[in-house]
Amino acid sequence: MGALELVAASPLGLVECLVGRTPLGEVLFVSVLCPPARIDGRANAGDAPLPQLGLYCHVPFCAPACDYCAFYQTQPRAGDFELFVENIGHELALNPPNSPAATFFWGGGTPGLLPPELLTSLGTLFLEANGWRKPVEWTVEMTPGTVRPERLAALRSLGVTRISVGVQSFDPDTLAALGRRHTQRQVFQAMEWLGEAGFPDISLDLIFAVPGQDEARWRMDLEQAVRFCPQHISTYCLTLEEDTALYIRLAAAGAGKGKKGNGLAASSEREAALYRTSWNFLEEQGYAQYEISNFSRPGHSCLHNRNTWRMGEWLGYGPAAASQLGFRRWRNPPDLVRWRRGIERAALEAERVDVVELTPESLLADALIFGLRMNEGVSPIALAERFGCVLPAALGALVHRLHEEGFLDDTAVSEQGDGFLRLTLEGRLRADAIAAAILCCFE
Ligand code: SF4
């Protein structure tokens, strides 16, 4: 192996990353000059106040799909991108935001597949619908293969503040197991261009508990991620959904016969070990955990997602996009053609799916469950006041039991505490079971 040549010193926010390349042109590693990390014990205290309304856009195109994907996405055909943007404009006119939005979030799918001029058109539609007010935070999800200087320039001039890159892994074998279509080399190139573009916030998504990915490989992914010094890192445990290519492949290989727990997915012990590895490592590296799967440098948590988890309000545009407004939650039809037809007939409301009429109690339950997933915790009394309802009698006993079992920290029961419930590390590992127990209190 030849000596490494220093080819780039890319500014990523306040830090610098140095990219190494062999004489053959292969990007091999990234060494880092990160400033000393400082963690606030309560994870991201000092963030800006939470927004009131978020606007989400689901860009449903992927080409082709990843093997584990269970999101609504479709392979684009000629003219689909233009028609999509045009119809988003109609949808924004049919169902405009009822108040100024503080955050925009474009997810998918792959928003980065749109060419620069259509990204500009889409962004202009959102800005116009928002009374030309720029949001406090504007996130666009991109896959490494779609990161290109021209697209980044278009997004930067619109006022996009945050790029979330779906890296998932740096390890070629793990990427192959996931059926991701990008290469390690594309990730390094994407990070170099992102550094040059100068967005205030870069976030990397990683996946663990992938078949064939042992602890050492996962740790290498984490180590490589922090070498890029992003402001934010999300780590997701792989969920095996039926009917995905990965599920079918594993089932056919005889890895098991059914859902999680039947041999297809990682055991809960292995998942817990990988969770612990991530949490310990990222904390050591200066990334405060602020939600079970999300870590950031102080002041860089995702405001849009925090608003969602706190049961704020958001409006979703595009096929399969979810909304929550007032006492109603719904989703647009997860089908590009149905979505378009609904808009053309000005009858999109009739095509909505998963429509749920909410009550103060159901909002309280959801705010408790999602609030507990955040390290800042949640105050049941403040939530009951906010939603104008009474806490269920069974909740008090549950809180005491969870504290005795070591899943809630001492502030949950201490008279000197602030009235917030916060999960301990062991509690976070059991967040789903605790959510189910909370729901039982509301029955
Ligand atoms: S890029 Fe995302 S949405 Fe598209 S196929 Fe892969 S996982 Fe699914």
What does this structure look like?
The chain has 443 residues and is an alpha/beta fold. The chain has two domains: 53-309, Aldolase class I (TIM Barrel, Alpha-Beta Barrel), CATH 3.20.20; 380-441, no CATH class. It contains 16 helices and 15 strands. The chain has a nine-stranded mixed β-sheet, with helices on both faces. A three-stranded antiparallel β-sheet has the order 1-2-3, covered by helices on one side. Helix 1 (80-94) packs parallel to helix 2 (116-129), helix 6 (215-227) packs parallel to helix 8 (268-284) and helix 12 packs antiparallel against helix 13. The chain binds iron/sulfur cluster. Residues 62, 65-66, 69, 71, 73, 108-110, 143, 166 line the site of iron/sulfur cluster.
Described by strand count, sense and barrel closure, the largest sheet is: 9 strands, mixed
Number of helical elements: 16
Tell me which ligands are bound. Answer: iron/sulfur cluster
Q: What is the percentage of strand-forming residues?
A: 15-25%
